[in-house]
Specification:
The protein has 31 helices and 24 strands. It is of the alpha/beta class and 790 residues long. The chain is globular, with a radius of gyration of 26 Å.
Length: 790
């Protein structure tokens, strides 16, 4: 059984994001046909390429497994007629950038017409070119990456484009869900640049709150890396785990050392501490060290190389790697108990299905529109989550109209409220923590818009009774604590199904619900190490790097939202709920699928090389005017290289034998970098990027939170919504990149104060009487302030 069986999808996208969206639709049961020109999709000619025989582009293979291929010449009358027939029978059409979705909807009103593009069809950046380095530079993410004083790092692969494809899948499935109520399709648009901004750590709200800008020279996260005999390991040393670190590493003798015993001197002697740890672990295997630390509940991870992942004992135990037609493919991004992913075939040969036609579209359904706002209006989500990934999943569903109830314990507060930390002024409006700093932290307030706050002590009988009654009137339960947490609370899927037979339960374990690493604690950066991404990011000869404070958390949240929407579509048709497992590491591996497949294919791992690319030169970030200001430039073609020389006022440079071809530019890359940097140092990064893009050269300013808050592009997209928070005040809040034209999502209310909706939940949702409410409160099961030690 598949969730999307019977749906017909026409993929005309010609973009990574569009084709990834269509690939997900194919994975979960839709019939997807890739419509290609006679010469084939442009992605068939994009790297990385297989070195095993004539197997072509691994990017194309990863994006198009499970699809059909129809080759059409849209310049001919026959080709246009054939395409029109395909579109008239489509439930979903994924269109190339520059397309007008209404052209499809006028012919087929039930179709969900979708466009994924770098910057959208209009706005100040509509004509810009957007390779990965440009998208990451504009997003604010790149500003966070790498060492202060060196060029910031853009990352690896085409992650911004894949993330946009994932966002488009969320939009498409939400539009399909709405179609059952309205009888009509609609336009769904997603920009890669806006998606990249939405995935960035919310430092922009910090800046909006108090004008501060987090820089790479500011104190870093409490983590460091050591080199074991077979790889790098990242170790997080939280203050409350210091004794555990010393115990696990056999370093009890330094636990009370005056340099390290207390948090402030420990941070002052951080490098010295990690020199001691390095000496201790140099001869250990990386996996042995991680296992030792994790046994003492110290968060640590190995920076796996891509070639190692194919032989991973953990992934093997989970049956992750699969094959199709004798070729390896990545496992599913999420696992659904009733409607698992099913792969029909490998990526198709060009034109293999020419002449194929979908079945006729179904007759229009009901035209009754749901009450409320957004395609998920009327649905309720019970969110037992913390930090970012789980709350992001609930935030996406809330943005699309659902009612999320964010449940916290009075003694175990959401970590993004920063309740356990000494208040740092940079986290609060006007730099003031206030009487309720846990309600004023930009972290929590950025990710919990549209939600109700219900504080329940689930260690009490009354708290457990309330949560079970909430589950009975909810559609979805989300949890991103360690595997087994819901079961300990009596809220596992089997138990909840007895309460609400059609409930959907989604858990987001970092490494999955089973396997040797299932119990490992993780954070966004350690998950990035575990995917193979970090081993591809870094300066030549340096340690692996991570992308910002927590890049994979929002990716996990979007994957969870995608999985839940898939399950909701199945429930809408069958009445069945199901259990969802979103193993965040495995889900994120999809974003570098082509690079992982290339490593398996060749047996070689890519070496970190800063921002440089074998397919473009220059391809880097260059210093601009001001402190730690940079401009990203990527010349991917000879025409772009020559245009760059012209903008710099050095047209003759293009004929210089050192730089006349891509190969010679690569050979002389240091000299080329120095020449370009001499020009960029005197340039304003915004003006330089605009001049280069006007000349056809991909470029972008490496934007800071200050830049994002004033971005004309994001303002044009309506990215920020003005919201009034009872404690934090009135501020613009960053949004989400999913645009539906008929049932749009929205940010309707600011994040809730701690326990602000306790009465509303008990009275309006559960229907308790005043006496019953008073009894619950008297039991201590609820609170409106964190309890001591929380």
């Amino acid at each position: 059984m598949t969730a999307l069986a019977g749906l017909s999808v026409v993929d005309l996208s010609e973009t990574v994001g569009g084709q990834y969206c269509a690939r997900l639709l194919a994975d979960f049961g839709a019939e997807v046909v890739l419509v290609e020109p006679p010469e084939g999709s442009a992605l068939r000619r994009m790297p990385p390429f297989s070195q095993a025989g004539d197997q072509g582009s691994l990017l194309f293979f990863h994006l198009n497994t499970g699809k059909r291929s129809v080759s059409l010449d849209q310049g001919s009358a026959a080709g246009r007629q054939a395409l029109d027939e395909l579109l008239c029978g489509a439930d979903v059409a994924i269109l190339p950038p520059g397309s007008e979705p209404r052209d499809v909807l006028d012919r087929n009103p039930r179709c969900v017409a979708t466009v994924v593009s770098p910057f959208g069809a209009d706005g100040p950046l509509a004509a810009w070119k957007g390779p990965e380095i440009v998208l990451q530079a504009l997003s604010g993410m790149m500003h966070n990456n790498g060492a202060h004083g060196r060029e910031p790092l853009h990352g690896c692969g085409r992650r911004a484009s894949f993330a946009a494809g994932l966002a488009a899948y969320v939009g498409v499935t939400a539009a399909l869900f709405a179609r059952e109520h309205t009888g009509l399709g609609q336009a769904v648009t997603v920009d890669e640049a806006e998606t990249a901004a939405a995935m960035c750590f919310p430092y922009v709200l910090q800046h909006i709150y108090n004008g501060t800008v987090k820089g790479r020279g500011d104190p870093n996260i409490p983590a460091g890396q050591v080199r074991c005999r077979d790889g790098w390991v990242c170790i997080w040393i939280y203050n409350h785990r210091w004794s555990a670190v010393c115990r696990a590493l056999g370093l009890e003798h330094i636990e009370r050392d005056e340099r390290f015993g207390a948090p402030i001197p420990r941070r002052a002697h951080w490098a010295e501490l990690f020199t001691i740890i390095q000496d201790k672990v140099a001869d250990l295997s990386a996996e042995e060290l991680v296992a030792t630390l994790q046994r003492d509940e110290v968060i640590a991870a190995k920076a796996y190389r891509p070639t190692e992942l194919h032989g991973s004992a953990h992934l093997a135990a989970r049956g992750y790697w699969e094959t199709v037609e004798g070729r390896p493919i990545l496992g599913p991004p999420f696992r659904l108990s009733r409607t698992p992913r099913q792969i029909r075939s490998a990526a198709p040969d060009l034109g293999a299905d020419t002449g194929w036609a979908p079945s006729s579209p179904a007759a229009p359904g009901s035209t009754a529109v749901t009450s409320g706002t957004g395609p998920l209006a009327g649905l309720r989500v019970l969110e037992i989550t913390t930090a970012w990934a789980g709350p992001m999943a609930g935030r996406v569903l809330g943005f699309l109209g659902a009612e999320p109830i964010h449940v916290e314990s009075p003694t175990r507060v959401n970590s993004w409220r920063l309740n356990k930390e000494v208040p740092n002024p940079v986290n609060f409006p006007d730099g003031v923590p206030g009487d309720r700093p846990y309600d004023r932290a930009f972290h929590f307030n950025s990710q919990n818009v549209n939600k109700l706050s219900c504080i329940l002590d689930l260690k009490t009988g009354e708290g457990r009774e309330i949560i079970r009654r909430l589950a009975a009137v909810s559609d979805v339960v989300i949890c991103n604590f360690r595997p087994g947490t819901l079961a300990k609370l009596g809220l596992d899927y089997a138990s909840l199904r007895r309460i609400k037979p059609d409930i959907i339960v989604a858990e987001l374990p970092a490494f999955g619900a089973d396997g040797p690493m299932a119990r490992y604690a993780a954070l966004g950066p350690t998950m990035e190490m575990s995917t193979g991404m970090s081993s591809m990011i870094g300066y030549p000869g340096g340690q692996p790097e991570t992308t910002g404070p927590s890049y994979l958390d929002p990716i996990g949240g979007f994957n969870a939202a995608a999985a839940i929407l898939t399950a909701l579509l199945h429930r809408q048709r069958t009445g069945e709920g199901q259990y969802i497992e979103v193993p965040q590491v495995e889900a994120a591996m999809q974003l570098i699928g082509p690079e992982l497949l290339a490593a398996i294919d060749s047996g070689r791992d890519p070496a970190p090389n800063g921002n440089r690319s074998p397919h473009a030169a220059p391809h880097d970030a260059f210093p601009a005017r001001g402190d730690d200001q940079w401009v990203a430039i990527a010349a991917e073609t000879e025409a772009e290289w020559q245009a760059l020389c012209g903008v710099m006022g050095q047209a003759g440079l293009a004929a210089d034998p050192r730089f006349a071809t891509l190969a010679t530019r690569q050979q002389n890359i240091e000299a080329l970098t120095a020449i370009i940097a001499d020009w960029t140092r005197s340039q304003d990064k915004h003006a330089a990027a605009a001049r280069l893009q006007a000349a056809g050269v991909p470029a972008a300013p490496v934007q800071t939170p200050h830049d994002l808050a004033r971005s004309e592009y994001l303002a044009h997209r309506g990215f920020f919504t003005m919201l009034e928070h009872a404690d934090a005040g009135r501020h613009p809040h960053p949004g989400l990149p999913i645009h539906l034209d008929a049932t749009p999502g929205s940010q309707r209310r600011a994040a809730p104060r701690f326990g602000a909706d306790n009465h509303r939940v008990l009275r309006d949702i559960l229907g308790l009487t005043p006496g019953e409410i008073a009894a619950v409160e008297a039991s201590g099961a609820m609170a409106t302030e964190p309890r001591p030690g929380a």
